[in-house]
Amino acid sequence: MQLSLTSLALFVGVALANPLAPVVYKELETRQGPLIPDNCTTYASVNAGTVCIHVPYDCTSFYEVQLGETCLSIAAKFNSFSLTQFFKWNPDVGQTCISLRAYVPVCIATLWYSFVPPLIQYPPGAIVNATSTPVPIMPQITAFCKTFQLVGEGTTVDQILIQHGIDIQQFVLWNAMVQVQNPVVWRDYFVCVEV
């Protein structure tokens, strides 16, 4: 007991005698900026465990993802929101839906959003002239696109480039979300193939 009281006294003495400690702390606080609270909602269930989910504060309806479901299958099940909107409401799933987790709830409605389904359902691989912009499109597509292609299952960027006789630099310029080093397009989304 004597040793631990001595250690405690030594620790307190060093802490009180060290005038640089507050300065270093203030410097770190200034460099990091103010702390921004995380809008994480903790969700716990037997199947999912405890997870942190991020959803809009005004979400009015939730759906618990079932095993084997995808973002596309959930959107098709409810037919009341676009995939683009689903990704905005549920940023934790990622823009490719890679982080969608079974037994974890996702937001499927807010008061301010109303879904307008597309008038025409195109088959995968369809090429559409831009009399109007088809939906859904990949984010950050150029506003000057003349022709779109609906990406089908298994379609690669290389296949699209060969089919339309364009190079990767043109494609990335028109579809800014696609990266040159790792060109990936989303299945069931339109990409720009001509300006």
UniProtKB/TrEMBL annotation:
It comes from the Eukaryota. Residues 61-108 form the LysM domain. Residues 1-17 form the signal peptide. GO terms for molecular function: chitin binding. Keywords: Chitin-binding, Signal, Virulence. CDD domains: LysM (cd00118). This is LysM domain-containing protein.
